[in-house]
Amino acid sequence: AQSVSQHNHHVILSEAASLELGCNYSYGGTVNLFWYVQYPGQHLQLLLKYFSGDPLVKGIKGFEAEFIKSKFSFNLRKPSVQWSDTAEYFCAVNPLRGTYKYIFGTGTRLKVLA
Amino acid sequence: EAQVTQNPRYLITVTGKKLTVTCSQNMNHEYMSWYRQDPGLGLRQIYYSMNVEVTDKGDVPEGYKVSRKEKRNFPLILESPSPNQTSLYFCASSRQGHEQYFGPGTRLTVT
After folding, report:
1. Is B43 in contact with A90 (Cβ distance < 8 A)?
2. Percentage above 70 pLDDT, chain B
């Protein structure tokens, strides 16, 4: 079955530290890839997306992600986190063939210490 | 303003009492979906709809029903709610294959 794995469930960082959150998916075909953020008490919002082209994509608030097709990965990065980045982060995949389901990872809860 | 609305935002009910959570979007999106969010389990898709009168099961459809009679609306129906359906529910809409826009969420408690 298609799945999305986020290996880090909880991450605690100090402000200014660098962030990398892992995301791997299991689907052999073409996919659209997304990272969403959920701030405490709020709904999910799009951080960035990858459809095609340059595998390094930039999103809002200084986030970026790199798509590595050979590794089925779409890791999220930020060079220097801020306290306001405290949130839960979800990776999601939308296969473009056969099914129109969006598949989400279980999320990574990030806490940034001031 | 482009948005997805859900009602009610909070609901406490008793086992077996039928309820409906409404979802509406004003972006003319063909794709709509319902998710439930539980601690440690992330978002799990309940049902989705690719267009009017076209719906399909997600990963956790048991105990839920949906309908898509109009493009803008996608209600979630719990015919006989049980305590294991206590959760936070999100509706979302999108153009097919594109990023989803989420509603504000409905926190449901079934006692």
Report:
1. yes
2. 100
